[in-house]
Amino acid sequence: MKSISQKRRDFVLKLGQALGVAGALGSAPHAFAKSSAGSRANIKSIALKKGANGQQRLIFQLDKSIRHKTFSLSSPDRFVIDFLNTSTKGQLKLGRNKANPKATLVKRLRQSTRNNNDFRVVLDLSRKARAETKLRSDGSSYYLEVALSPRQTNKKGSAPEQIKKAISAVGRRSGNKRAMVIAIDAGHGGKDPGAVGKKGTKEKQIALQIAKRLKNHINRQPGMRAVMIRDGDYYVSLRKRIHKARKHKADLFISIHADANPNRSLTGSSVYILSESGASSEAARWLANQENSYEERLAGAHLLRKNKVVKSMLLDLSLSNTIDRSLELANSVLRELGRVNHLLRHRVESAGFVVLKSPDIPSMLVETAFISNAMEEKRLKTKHHQEKLAKAIFKGVRQYQVAMQESESLYDNYT
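and the corresponding structure tokens:
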């Protein structure tokens, strides 16, 4: 099973390819080109050519079409090319500019065989560079061209800046840069009472009381800050709850509820995240809504608005990553709830709840207990039980935060 940092790295690499821009992550426009059937391709030669404005082109000559993947690493700066089902005879040698060694972007070429089938080339760079690849053929041979350009780090709207914003949007970090912002959504409110217990207890009241207790726990924890979606008895539409969380740049969204069922013997807590079908319908809705700016939708990332395919891929990746994180959060909270209350189910459930549909905020909905059950209704009304539930949710969130910080530390060290 992949670690959090491994999954994040896979996701970020896919995102870089989906954006169609290079820089911190590199790009592979022909990463999925069809390769010739049969035996392996062979790299016959390599050439380094100088271009204008400090650009350089690295050209690999091959005897067959190939599939390849690329990505970039920093500290030190490197560009990696994986040739799939490819080999080479002998060592590839890179010519040097003896007159002015500093004029070349590529300081050194390293190579190795991977998985007994693939061939990896690592380019050690003298500075940060933008890289693009292109596969072409002259009829007798195939050529993979790697175009390297010095990367401008201070240019507004540059590719690296686009990627930085995109990654921040789809996978916000919870490290030391700023406090983790948790949006707490007390379900129902105002004209919408939610479920009503046999003794007249209204779900909207219980949800708000537990939400306020959760807020107090969060605000007492360094590195966390709570934002209440509603802090009184008034109605907030489902979509507005999402918008309010996004306005406050929330890192997590937690919706608090009290369950109900005609079968009044049912008891226990449960936790929900967005289902795959719910995510798909939301992606279609967002892509169809042309009035929403892309900056508003993905936290300021200005990303190829006219390219519908890229938009769709980015949104799909964002939702997938968010669901993964939501599951990690929900599992932590469910474990803690199981220590203070009976669980209706011992696994996280999935549903298409509207309040869970923000594509870049990990979200969960907590059904604290069954207000339709007389025993649980009675307990839900007590400060003691409300406090136990709020503290359990907080503990789960805190465990998630610690796990994210550790995974980010591992990720930063790796890259």
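(Above: one complete record from the training split.) The mean pLDDT is 78.
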